[in-house]
Amino acid sequence: MLSRPLKSQISICICIILFTAIIVMWTTFVFIYRKNTGEQTAAVYQQSLESIGQNITFLQETIYGTSTYLILNQNTQDILQFPESKLLNMDAAAKSKLDAASLLSFNTLVSNDYVSFVSFTAKNGYTLYVSRDGGTEGYPYEQIRNAAPYEQAAAKLGAPIWMIIPQDSTVVSAAGTRPKLALIRAVMNTNTYKPEGFLTICVDFSTIQEAFFAESSQKSRQTVFFITEGGTVLGTAETPPTYTYVRKRNGETSIIDPQSVSAGEYVRFNGETCIVAKYHIKSCNAYIIGLTRITDAMQNMNNVLILFLISAVCILLIFTFAAVFSGKLITNPLNRLLESITAAKEGNFSRIVDIRRTDEIGTLANEYNSLMNKLNYQINTVYRLQISEREAELKALVSQINPHFLYNTLDTIYWKCLNAGEKDVSSVIYSLSRLFRLTLNRGNELTYVKNEIELISHYVKLQKTISHNRFDFQPDIDETVYDFLIPKLILQPFVENAIVHAACNTSYTVTVSLCGTLTSEGIFFLIGDNGTGIDPAVLNSLLTDSNVFQDGSERKGSSNYAIKNIRERLKLYYGNTYTLTISSDPGTGTRIELTLPFEPVKQETGNAHTFYRG
């Protein structure tokens, strides 16, 4: 990957990061949404199932209210108080007349869609029943009073007992065919307050299924079961019933246990995972269990996930284009910078990168341009210095064609003048000879401070001869600086400028001073005079190395070139570690301060001198 272009690397990195983020978001979203959706779906289905349970409870309350009306009915109480002997001897016509009043009430009750069987039996032997479910006659009092449910009803003294009647059970009728929800109550004699009969009202589970379960299954896609405490399934919304195997544990399929299964639990039903909803009907100790396939419950979730996936793909595409665009914003300036570097490798240091930005790339471009400008300036400066050095070497070679001849000639003249008694002339010739020797310096660029001071003293002596002593020179050099190496002809041009421009242009005697000492920063030199000073425009051109004044006129003269040459040579040997300041006011003189490091940065090749290290 690192061998690819930077733009491709940026795009790939952004796409990888974004793709990873989408995967993490997708996983987290699916987990949280599935969990929340499962909980919300379970709550909705539980609420739907509770609605069924409440409807069944309301049905029970309705039946209970009707049964109370039948028990307290005067006709029913009259039957309870009818003598058993008289009832046995009653003919068919009288018996039919006695049943007529009860049948009217019973038929009214059975006419309701939800009631399938009603039975009334009294202690005196009276028995009456009405059936719509194919069941035969009810049992007489003496036959059922010792049966468990009827004993419980008698013990409760008229309170209702609800029970589940399984399919084909003969508990309440001689030929039961379908499962029922039955109400059994002891019929109390209002005179004796004793149970003297039983009233049984049954609701067929097919009716409950059609009225409640089927509608709920159609709306909420639930499979609803009515299950006894023992696990017997009485009614289902499915046809044919598929409720035998409901719950799967430890890899084995078992019959559902209504007491252990919990609402919101996930179970296996017909090979599919389902959410459980559960409602307990306490009156008959039975349970309504609703099972909803997770695929149906999560149908909306699948739509949301598809929408999320489409959105994620769109975001990925958008960010991919954004990554390519942002990569261009970064790589295009870098490509221009690379082109400039390539040009610099070929020797073109003047090519500037035009990047107008304020960010890190803009800062890099500005620093690069500054580096190129500085490098170009230094290369040009070194190039000019090399040319100057070559010219100086050429001049030195020319002057050294026969140096001994020149020196011997000057010595001969010196001795002849001395023998002739011309001491002044001989002194001038001696100074000229030493000036030549110290200036040439055997071709070396570096010289000792003491040699530079001697050169200046001979130059001053020759200038005094020329200017007829119109200036006074006062050297004050500390001997501790004598053995330090400095570039030759660094101090002499400043002294020459002071003499030429200060002493020769005044009517009074000008004092030129030269001081040298050691400081903590290096070797400190001070050249000063009390001459006419320097005009501000001229001083500004000296400080800025310019040959043009501020008004645009050109400066003529050698002093400006001499100082510029000194600056360039100092920068070549010391870099930025030296300091040079020139201060002057018209009429007050000039003051030049120069501080050099103890050792030059650049060392001459083949120089026999050694550095003095204190």
TrEMBL record:
Ranges of residues in domain HAMP: 328-380
Subcellular location: Cell membrane
Keyword Ubl conjugation on entry: no
Keyword Ligase found: no
InterPro entries (alphabetical): Bact_2-comp_sensor_kinase, dCache_1, HAMP_dom, HATPase_C_sf, HATPase_dom, Sig_transdc_His_kin_internal
Major site of localization recorded for this protein: membrane
Topology within the bilayer: Multi-pass membrane protein
UniProt xrefs under SMART domains: HAMP
Transmembrane region(s): 12-33, 304-326
Keywords: Cell membrane, Kinase, Membrane, Phosphoprotein, Transferase, Transmembrane, Transmembrane helix
CDD domains: HAMP
Domain of life: Bacteria
Molecular function GO labels: phosphorelay sensor kinase activity
Alphabetized Pfam families for the sequence: dCache_1, HAMP, HATPase_c, His_kinase
Entry GO CC: plasma membrane
Identification of the protein by name: Integral membrane sensor signal transduction histidine kinase
